[in-house]
Amino acid sequence: MTLSSDSSVVGSARVKRGLADMLRGGVIMDVVNPEQAKVAEDAGAVAVMALERVPSDIRRDGGVARMSDPQMIQEIQATVTIPVMAKARIGHFAEAQILQALDVDYIDESEVLTPADEENHIDKWGFTVPFVCGATNLGEALRRIGEGACLIRSKGEAGTGNVVEAVRHLRTINAQMRRLASADEAELYRLAKDLQAPLPLVLEVAQTGALPVPMFCAGGISTPADASLVMQLGAQAVFVGSGIFKSEDPERMARAIVEATTHFQDAAVVAKVSTGLGAAMRGAEVATLEQRLAERGW
Amino acid sequence: MVAASVGVLALQGDVREHVAVLTGLGAEVIAVRTEQQLAAVAGLVIPGGESTTIARLLETSGMRALLGERLRDGLPVLGTCAGLILLSRSIVDGRDDQWSFATIDVDVRRNGFGRQIASFETTVDVDGVGEVPGVFIRAPKIESWSESVTVLATHDHGTGPTPVLVRQGAAWGCSFHPELTNNSAIHELFLATI
After folding, report:
1. What mean pLDDT do residues A153-168 have?
2. Any CB–CB contact under 8 A between B10 and chain A?
3. B138 contacts on A by Cβ (under 8 Å)
4. What is this structure's pTM?
């Protein structure tokens, strides 16, 4: 936190988590150029994630996936009025410093890029810009929050168009939170050890029954029905990566997923927006993948 | 303290926080997602969120026309952040096609205090209430306003004081997020007018 001359404070946990609160009920869309960013904003996206290749192309191309070119990020910032997020490699704090210098609104320390450190994530407390991190279970989520993440997204399996892993991760996190909420006080110390999570955060979840930061969902969402499913499972907003711009009609798919995310409890609305949408992205069976991105991060 | 129901526009944004504050003050609260729900409320809060997203969802849900009509008929309304943008008469630095209800005669600049890295917390002195915490997140800045607007609080962010809480008739607009703090003074002021 920094105190400015007029006694206002920037970079506090409240303003960092607060932006995540403002994104709730919305859709954050992966975009690779200003034209796609405009399509996303027109469709009602609450934010865009600027990256050079969507996850399905990263899978296809292989090689090392890194932070995007600053020029591309700046072009997208100049094109849209909504928040612009960008990805840094796990543990690559220098990429994160660059993204902060570029004034991005949120940094995603993401397993979709090739990790830079196989033991340590970025110490996120030192940054003014907030971070979102992925998690496959509650222990991973609380470790990231302990490092300063202000928003958690369940990881799912990016670039597959297959929602099965997103569902697994959301259900796992929810079940583990319920377990903490119903635990005897004496059990919480062992549960913290089992989860490999910081004890103060475990105690907080046991008391409130929820994460101390918002929880969104990512990885494999590619239809309005997928968005409704994960919102009903407790996600507070959705990230859609390859699912929009790898579909047959991206503009319609984007608008439909935005409406389905808002009206996720109203099946009549989700049915209406799902009608005549054209083909969703082709997708992949998770068991056939050579590289499981969700396994990156520790 | 109030019998009539208060709506919180629940299309996108920090709906939950507004519902919690209003419920805590004893109001009967409805999360508004349809025209029928909008028709039934005696007051409305438009929450923080993304103004372009909420505007689009007002159109797709069919509520834009009815909300415009109810605002012209004097529906008590409180808009925070994105809500203020939607109630303003004009928007600077928004999308070229961005519309607003023109309920409060203020011109607002989107992200007028800067991008997220410049988001800040401070203390705001509200007329008749005293100091309240002010959480400004990519906040809109009121750059000009007409005489019919009552300025209830200002903040000087280094470029001279600008209004951050305003009222015009039944409509209240707030640049910051009282719903993200445990101070319910502004919601109490609003509820007292319903």
Report:
1. 95
2. yes
3. 19, 22, 83, 105
4. 0.95
CB spacing of B138 vs A5 below 8 angstroms: no
B48 interfaces chain A, CB cutoff of 8 Å: yes
Name the amino acid, one letter, at A251.
E
Residues 6+ apart with CB under 8 A from A21: A214, B14, B17, B48, B180
Owner of token pair 């902060």: A100
Cβ proximity of A74 and A50 under 8 Å: no
Per-residue confidence at A290, pLDDT binned at 50, 70, 90? Answer: confident
Closest-CA residue in chain A for B158? A6
**Which is nearest to A27 in space by CA: A175, A238, A191?**
A238
| CB contact (8 A) between residue B48 and residue A22 | yes
- Sequence-distant (6+) residues with CB within 8 A of B131 are B123, B124, B125
Distance CA A45, CA A31 (A): 11
**8 Å CB contact of B158 and A26:** no
Tell if the CB–CB gap between B115 and A103 is shorter than 8 Å: yes
DSSP state, residue B38:
H
For residues B132 and B135, what is the distance between their CA atoms, to the nearest angstrom?
10
Task: Please indicate if any CB of chain A lies within 8 Å of the CB of B141.
Answer: no
Confidence of residue A282 (pLDDT cuts 50, 70, 90): confident
A120 touching B, CB under 8 A? no
Q: What is the ipTM of this complex?
A: 0.95
Kindly report, residue by residue over A120-139, the tens digit of the pLDDT.
999 999 999 999 999 999 99
CB contact under 8 A, B57 and A262: yes
Tell me: pLDDT of B90 over 50.
Answer: yes
Using an 8 Å Cβ cutoff, are B11 and B44 in contact? Answer: no
Chain B residues with CB under 8 Å of A46 CB are 12, 49-50, 53
Q: Is A4 a residue whose pLDDT tops 50? A: no
B64: contact with A, CB 8 A cutoff: no
Strands A151-154 and A215-217: parallel
Active site annotation includes B81: yes
**How distant is the Cα of A5 from the closest Cα of chain B, in angstroms?**
8
Evaluate if residue B1 carries a pLDDT over 70: no
A44, β-bridge pairs: none
